[in-house]
Amino acid sequence: MTRRKHDLPDAEELVDISAGLNSQSELSRQQKNRKKIIIIVVCAFVVVALCVTGFLLYRHYEEEKARERAFQELVDRTVNTETFYEGVVVEGIDLGGKTLDQAKEALASLEPDLRQPVDITVTAGENSYQLTTDDFTYTYNTDEVLDEAYQVARTGERMDRYNKILDLKENPVEFSIEAQMTVDDAKLQEFVDAIAAEVNVAPVEASVTSFSPLSAEKFTYAEGQDGQSLNTEKLLADIKELLAADDKTGTLEGEFTVNPHTTTVEQLKARTVLMSSYSTTSTNTAAGTNNMRLALEAVNGTVLQPDEVFSFNNTTGDTTDPSRGYQAAGAIMNGQSVQSIGGGICQASTTIYGAAMRADMDITMRYNHVWPSTYVPLGQDATVDYPSVDFQFRNSSQYPVYIAAWVDGVVLHVEFYGYIPETWDTIEVSTWTTETIPAPEAITEVDSSLAPGTTQLVTQAHTGYRAAGERIYYKNGQRVGSDPIHSSYYPANAAVYKVGPSE
């Protein structure tokens, strides 16, 4: 049926239409539901996808943060360590991981090998001396080098430092230590002086090798020898010059200066001539002459150096000791003539005194007797009494003096040998009495042990004297000067008698 435009549907059509509409509506609902489901599913999927994506992104973010933290921690650990960085090399030793103290300890054993070798040989005559590396002090700039090495990759931005540290492993930074030698002038001078002390030879002057005072040829002579001295100033300068060179090895030869001896045997013979001689004759007993002989034997052969002092008592020793051969003989004691061990030795000292004055010796200690001696002129005696009274003189010349002394029978002889200056060639001694002192009146003492009317002389009277004198110097027989000598005083003594008691 054909429906006209604007014709109303009938009921059946309406039912059908309604049914159709319902059917379409259901279908539409279903479709909508399906769409909703699809949308819900899609939304759910999207949500899930977004959640998963967000989770993954979050997880990735956290992992990235963790990796970043780990990296930063690694950078911190690498950069902020207090030890040397790996790849910092000093004298071939990688100091990576070492502290400053550990690095110093590791390098300490290497320092001696960094010294520049020193090997200097010094020859001096037949001797050889060595200077080596160990004779010098060295300083090392180890501390400065370690300070500089420690600063590698420690400045600048943090990541720049990190990258530098990583680069050090492939491209190490190397440092060298320098050894600086110290030349101690004082020690070098000691070294040179020690050589000189061994090789220097003093000149040996012509000398008297023996003195035989009782022989015809009294002196034996030896020729002098030249000496030598090392030129220490030049040697020291040569050593310093070699030490300043790049190659501190080599041989240096010491130079010597000849030091000639100045005295010949002929000159020495002129200094060992007979200066003086003096003799006295013994009027004592055989025992007294024996004592004189022993004393002069002790003096015989004496050599006095310039300014040396001769002591009679020190030279003879104890002249009162009978075990040494001295005997009892006439002597003066307490103004009386007695027998005493060693009596007579005063004549020996007096004879030496006479020769010493005539040799121009400086008489430093001399005493005269209580009584004038019969064997020498008044004022020319020299008494001794061991150990209290001594006779002494000093060698006032500038050369040694040699003494010969002996007894020939009853004659005492003393000779002095040495140097006679040009100012004189002979000395004489003159003495004279300046005062005569009469003996006091005799003294008489009663001795009950004597028989009545008996008189006994105890002490003989002696006239007293004062004497003066001088040494007179002659040259070619002409008087050229004089010096006073010690004055003498011999006290006067009264005679002493002992008498028996009167009846």
Descriptive report:
By secondary structure, this protein is α+β, with helices and mostly antiparallel strands. Helix content is 33%, strand content 29%. The protein has helices at 11-79, 100-108, 142-150, 158-170, 185-199, 232-244, 265-270, 286-299, 312-316, 345-358; strands at 88-90, 93-94, 118-124, 127-132, 137-140, 173-175, 179-182, 207-211, 219-222, 227-230, 248-253, 256-259, 273-281, 303-304, 309-311, 328-333, 336-341, 362-365, 392-394, 401-408, 411-418, 426-437, 443-446, 455-459, 464-475, 478-484, 488-490, 496-499.
Q: Quote the beta fraction.
A: 25-35%
Low-confidence stretches: 1-6
Structural class: alpha+beta
End-to-end gap:
239 Å
Q: What is the residue-mean pLDDT, rounded to a whole number?
A: 90
Rg (C-alpha, Å): 64 Å
How many helices? The count is 10
- Which strand order do you get reading across the main beta sheet? 13-21-20-14
What's the short story on this structure?
The chain is an alpha+beta fold.
Helix and strand topology:
Blueprint: H1 11-79, E1 88-90, E2 93-94, H2 100-108, E3 118-124, E4 127-132, E5 137-140, H3 142-150, H4 158-170, E6 173-175, E7 179-182, H5 185-199, E8 207-211, E9 219-222, E10 227-230, H6 232-244, E11 248-253, E12 256-259, H7 265-270, E13 273-281, H8 286-299, E14 303-304, E15 309-311, H9 312-316, E16 328-333, E17 336-341, H10 345-358, E18 362-365, E19 392-394, E20 401-408, E21 411-418, E22 426-437, E23 443-446, E24 455-459, E25 464-475, E26 478-484, E27 488-490, E28 496-499
Parallel strand pairs: 1-6, 3-11, 23-28
Antiparallel strand pairs: 1-2, 3-4, 5-7, 8-9, 10-12, 13-21, 14-20, 15-19, 16-17, 18-19, 20-21, 22-25, 24-28, 25-26, 25-27
